[in-house]
Amino acid sequence: MAFFETVLGLSQTALELGLISALTVLALFLSYSMLNVCDLSTDGCFTLGAAVGAVVALSGHPLLSIPAAMLAGMLSGLITAFLQTRMGINSLLAGIIVNTALYSVNIAVMGNASLLNMNKVETVFTKMQAVLSGTFLSGQYKLIVALIAVAFTVLFLSLFLKTRLGLAIRATGNNPDMVRSSSINPIFTTTVGLCVANAFTALSGCLLAQSQKSVSIDIGQGMVTIALASLLMGTVLLNRRSVPLQAVGAVLGAILFRIVYTIALRFDMPASMLKLVSSVIVIVAISGPYLKQKMPTILRRIKTKEGK
Amino acid sequence: MLKLNDVTLTFSRGTQDAKTVLNHISLHVKKGDFISIIGANGAGKSTLFNAVCGSLLTDSGSIILDGVDVTTMPEHKRAKVIGRLYQDPMRGSAPGMSIEENLALASGHGGWLSAISKADKKLFRDRLALLNMGLEDRMKQQVGLLSGGQRQALTLMMATVNPPKLLLLDEHTAALDPATAEKVLALTKSIVEEQKLTCLMITHNMQSALDLGNRTLMMNNGKIILDVEGEERKGLTVSDLLDRFRQVSKQELDNDKILLS
């Protein structure tokens, strides 16, 4: 019985964390899969969302913390987009530069501290707890908040990517020449795409901080790799489907990643291994298809050498 | 309709490798003109198109399109009234998106936040049916699954779903197999006639340069060295063209290069 409770508790935590990080995965789904931009400011933006959300919640406005964090994320995305579309900075470098700058910004937002505590503060989670108290869902308040956020985001992306603007964003990642000849400015679509994506990244950070009732300056560290790993796992699950299904795949990937990670922890994998594992997953997922394609050539080369 | 006044463009200007690719070009295209453009590789034909489209900004001179000075207008703004097809059939459409979505983007119908309307879907189906390729029944399929000829035909539809003021065809059939090339060329001809488009077509095939359209330009070293239309053009043969080239440029034209490449 105790065993089942442990499993249940663990899988619930995995589900909650998976759903919260799914928001970042959905952000990368937009920027990486659709727009074909690898946004390396994700880590900093995640922390920015967490910091801004925490500060607003600490000032007594838990509900306001959500739009505030998303707005901050949008602003960060706007700067990343501006650097890569208007200032001639390579898109990877633009992300790294913004990420570095955000470290200072985040410390400043947190009032020159690297850790904020929200133990006795009202958050969106405590609000939901109060709403649900007494009902049979009272223990699931974290899950419900995360679920609402993810459902909203998936729905938004599914509808958004069907609009003319959404189609233009997808085409920008697919064939920028064609976007220009459709008299749409790819600079505009890249900017909108990155703003929306970073709003979701920041929302993800905001919710994680509030669910664990604290935010530290390194809360977002490695987030981009973890989210990419989840996204690529999701792609394996639901590949070459319609856009809404691909978005659902991204969410499933995020949850699956958390479950695998939780199981690994149960088998005494040190928690610090998380980032190594996610890096390996990304490497395998990206270079796997590449190596598979190269394999016949490599094998032939080895054979010819042996023959000599 | 389209006026180029003394347009000049030099690559690597101010260095030893400087190459003048457009050398004081002046050209007046009348509404409804269908002009074929021939010339050896490096003559400046595609550069001329790039200058008109805005992919390249010129060094001097002005470009007037339908009374509007577009000399420094960004490419995507000019694209509203200019349709362009490239030699590479992959270049004009987004492979990861469906036929319908590609056409929707090209049509530019509706606001930023509106989805593809039912009326548009029907319009696209009707337009695609004209191609006789069965594409109208594959609207939801990814464009990446189409053959080169089908993709070029789709690009032609995308470029003309809103009749453009100017249609630029840059050897758009050169990468297709002969049968498909003929089909796409016939389609081009019928669409240009149906919509009464003003059209410039670069071709390496001198015979089709004379067969199609009402006016023929020959370019060499960044200059228009021959410009024939009307009665003068009617009697011309390919060997006449080659003779004229020799006279004007005082050099042998690499006939094979033009005819075969």
Architecture blueprint of SSEs:
The complex is a heterodimer of chains A (308) and B (261).
Chain A: H1 2-34, H2 42-58, H3 65-86, H4 91-109, E1 115-117, H5 124-132, H6 141-160, H7 164-174, H8 176-181, H9 186-211, E2 214-216, H10 223-237, H11 243-266, H12 274-307
Antiparallel strand pairs in A: 1-2
Helix pairs in contact in A: 1-6, 1-9, 1-10, 1-11, 2-3, 2-4, 2-9, 3-4, 3-9, 5-6, 6-11, 7-9, 10-11, 10-12
Chain B: E1 2-11, E2 19-29, E3 34-38, H1 45-53, E4 60-65, E5 68-69, H2 75-78, E6 82-85, H3 99-107, H4 118-129, H5 148-160, E7 166-170, H6 178-195, E8 198-202, H7 206-211, E9 215-220, E10 223-229, H8 230-234, H9 238-249, H10 255-260
Parallel strand pairs in B: 3-8, 3-9, 6-7, 7-8
Antiparallel strand pairs in B: 1-2, 1-4, 4-5, 9-10
Helix pairs in contact in B: 3-5, 5-6
Could you describe the 3D structure shown?
The complex is a heterodimer of chains A (308) and B (261). By secondary structure, chain A is mainly alpha-helical. Chain A has a domain of 207 residues. Chain A has a two-stranded antiparallel sheet. The N and C termini of chain A lie far apart (65 Å). By secondary structure, chain B is of the alpha/beta class. Chain B has a single domain, classed as P-loop containing nucleotide triphosphate hydrolases (Rossmann fold, 3-Layer(aba) Sandwich), CATH 3.40.50. Chain B contains ten helices and ten strands. In chain B, helix 3 runs parallel beside helix 5 and helix 5 runs parallel beside helix 6. Chain B starts with a strand and ends with a helix. The mean pLDDT of chain B is 89.
